[in-house]
UniProtKB/TrEMBL annotation:
Protein name in UniProt: GGDEF and EAL domain-containing protein
Keyword terms, alphabetized: Membrane, Transmembrane, Transmembrane helix
Keyword Signal assigned: no
Sequence ranges assigned to domain EAL in this UniProt record: 409-658
Native species: Mesorhizobium dulcispinae
CDD domains: EAL, GGDEF
Biological classification of the source: Bacteria, Pseudomonadati, Pseudomonadota, Alphaproteobacteria, Hyphomicrobiales
Cross-referenced PANTHER family: CYCLIC DI-GMP PHOSPHODIESTERASE PDEF, SIGNALING PROTEIN YKOW
A Pfam family of this chain: EAL
Segments traversing the membrane: 42-60, 72-90, 102-121, 127-146, 153-174
UniProt KW Transmembrane keyword: yes
Domain GGDEF, first and last residues per copy: 262-400
Length: 659
């Protein structure tokens, strides 16, 4: 049933309308249409039962009116069978319910008056004065048994009543008192049955209205829910899918991937020199450019049965099912060419090109690797960075052995040597909140790196290179020093955390450097938390294990990050007592399935039994937050509670709250 706004408005008005007013014709027609099949059955079986009863009553005619019994019985048989056949013919030809009602009403009136006219000729008037009340059966039948519309019930039952009252008053040979009582009885049956018919009709109508209202409310709720899901999954500027939606789409693609021979390609695209474009032409021009690019990406994705989304800033991501590396190369090339074909003018580039272009990196699922979007994006990110070092306006398919990617790493290591001195490295803070109250408990410090041209370099790209070259020690100490300074000066809650790698942890003087930083800023050790990623195996580094124990003795908190993503998690929990264990975001996002929810619950139960404080990462929706509250999680972190922002934005937010 199509529930339009007009129907919804009619329902609202009809429910508030006084019961004595007539029903809305449109809604009543919908009621009849809704109950059409049921009404057909009521009429067919009702007439069949009525005809059977009508003919059976001929036995009384035989005993009470022997002089006209033959005529009465013949009348009953003729009229009963005629209308029984007529109703069946109308029903089998799928006529409207209204037509069936007309035929049934005519059958009642004809049957009643036909018998009455034949019975009036009997000489047994006293018997007739007793048996004439048989006419009330027709009155009740017209009003109560067939769900007629009120006017049809009233017309047919009134016709029968007038006929029997007239016959009683003017043709029945009986005393005046008898005729008066019988006439009053017929009139009373008419009024009472009509009232009951009206009440039943109103009850059916209002029950239908309330059911319709509930259906409308459900439909509105579903539509609003779909709109909310669409809003939650859509980038507000470009209209493409956002990161949350892309993550879910990837999970669905993985299910399909397991059933066929195609592979999943992940393409990461970044607009070349976009910061310069913005600085030169303004942010409105930048937004217009991104919208135009998004349209081209969406069309190209549709042509390749792919899924395009905005991953953040000037970065876009594409998921596609491909037949192999060559197919992925062709699809990636199409996206690059689609941007060049737009010929959007770019007035500030180092190269000779004067239009907007993109650099792209792509990665491919492999049968010998686990299917994780996080890993594929990291690989695509590294390939993207290789494209940038190759001169931009090109694309690279990830290959761990590729020479251009090695060259990109070499160039990046040179950049990392000057990152601190040139001011290319910065820090942002993401709040850690109480899962129930939403109160900010602390912040996690996250390192950010820009290229010389101002473009951002993903941590998944520069952190592995920094660890390989040893540059992570200087960068890591800079991050911790900056975080402690901001903690003391601006107050970031009860704790500020920083990620440390196994390269930092195995340095013999690492605890001394931490002690020096804390002393210089005058910060209590327990306000600093060092996050160790589960993916690194510190058991192979005896010095790293000793450093962890020294830092714990100093009072520094030790947190286990990304729990569940590596293979050493349980062994770590046996070896060390962590102050906080952070469950990786992937386990929360998998809670849409029963298996994923059960796995998260088991992990939380295990950590609690071991006495660890649990923090869940990646909280992006209110539904996820409610789930974690129900599970009794203490702390949460994610885009819902706060995105990573520079210290200046935190200070500005506090000033606005005070104002």
């Amino acid at each position: 049933m199509q529930l339009t706004e007009d129907v919804a408005q009619r329902v609202t008005e009809a429910i508030s309308r006084p019961s004595w007013k007539s029903a809305d014709p449109t809604l009543y027609a919908m009621l009849l249409q809704k109950n059409a099949d049921q009404n057909r059955k009521v009429v067919r079986w009702g007439i069949a039962a009525a005809v059977l009863s009508y003919i059976s009553y001929g036995a009384f005619d035989f005993f009470l009116f022997p002089d006209v019994a033959d005529r009465l019985i013949l009348t009953r048989l003729t009229l009963g069978l005629t209308f029984l056949v007529l109703v069946e013919l109308v029903a089998r030809r799928s006529r409207a319910v209204t037509t069936l009602h007309y035929v049934a009403a005519l059958a009642i009136v004809t049957g009643a008056i036909g018998w009455l006219l034949s019975a009036l000729g009997t000489t047994h008037q006293e018997a007739l004065s007793h048996f004439i009340i048989f006419g009330t059966v027709f009155i009740l039948g017209a009003n109560l048994f067939f769900n007629f519309r009120l006017w049809l019930s009233a017309l047919s039952s009134a016709t029968v009543t007038v006929a029997f009252v007239g016959a009683t008053l003017f043709f029945l040979h009986a005393g005046f008192a008898t005729r008066l009582v019988l006439s009053t009885y017929f009139a009373n049956c008419l009024v009472l049955s009509l009232y009951l018919s009206w009440r039943l009709s109103m009850e059916r109508y209002h029950t239908f209205l309330h059911a319709l209202q509930a259906q409308i409310q459900e439909q509105v709720a579903i539509e609003n829910g779909q709109k909310l899901i669409e809003i939650a999954d859509t980038d507000p500027l470009t209209g493409l899918k956002n990161r949350r939606a892309i993550t879910r789409e990837f999970a669905e693609l993985c299910t399909e991937w397991a059933r066929d021979n195609d592979e999943i390609g992940v393409i990461l695209m970044d607009v070349d020199y976009f910061k310069r474009f913005n600085d030169r032409l303004g942010h409105q021009a930048g937004d217009d450019c991104l919208i135009e690019l998004a349209r081209a990406f969406d069309e190209t994705a549709a042509a390749n049965h792919a899924i395009a989304g905005r991953y953040g800033g000037e970065e876009f991501v594409v998921l596609c099912k491909v037949a192999g590396r060559d197919h992925l190369r062709e699809v990636t090339h199409q996206f690059c060419r689609a941007v060049e074909d737009l010929k959007i003018s770019h007035p500030d580039r180092d190269d000779k090109l004067n239009i907007v272009t993109i650099s792209a990196g792509a990665s491919l699922t492999r049968a010998d690797q686990s299917i994780e979007l996080r890993i594929l994006l990291q690989e695509a990110d590294r390939a993207l960075y290789a494209s940038k070092f190759s001169g931009r306006a090109t694309f690279t398919i990830y290959d761990a052995q590729a020479i251009d990617q090695k060259r990109a790493s070499q160039n990046l290591s040179e950049l990392l040597k000057h990152a601190v001195s040139e001011g290319l490295v910065s820090v942002v803070y993401q709040p850690i909140c109480d899962a129930t109250s939403g109160q900010v408990l602390g912040h996690e410090s996250l390192m950010r790196l820009r290229d010389f041209d101002g473009s951002m370099i993903s941590p998944s790209v520069f952190i592995p290179v920094a660890e390989q070259t040893g540059g992570i020690e200087e960068l890591g100490m800079w991050l911790i020093d900056r975080a402690c300074g901001d903690m003391v000066e601006h107050g970031l809650g009860s704790v500020v955390s920083a990620n440390v790698s196994v390269v930092q942890l195995k340095a013999a003087n690492f605890p001394l450097h931490i002690t020096e930083i804390l002393g210089r800023h005058g910060m209590a050790p327990q306000k600093l938390a060092l996050e160790v990623t589960e993916g690194s195996d510190i058991f192979l580094e005896a010095q790293a294990a000793r450093n962890i124990e020294q830092l714990r003795n100093l009072g520094v908190q030790i947190w286990l990050d990304d729990f569940g993503t590596g293979f050493a998690g349980l062994a770590w929990l046996r070896r060390f007592k962590f102050d906080v264990v952070k469950i990786d975001r992937s386990f929360l996002h998998d809670c849409q399935t029963i298996r994923g929810l059960s796995l998260l619950q088991d992990m939380v139960r295990l950590l609690r039994n071991l006495g660890h404080t649990v923090l869940v990462e990646g909280v992006e929706t209110k539904e996820q937050q409610n789930l974690l509250q129900h599970m009794g999680i203490q702390s949460v972190q994610g885009f819902l509670t706060g995105r990573p922002v520079p210290i200046e934005e935190i200070k500005q937010s506090r000033r606005e709250l005070v104002a």
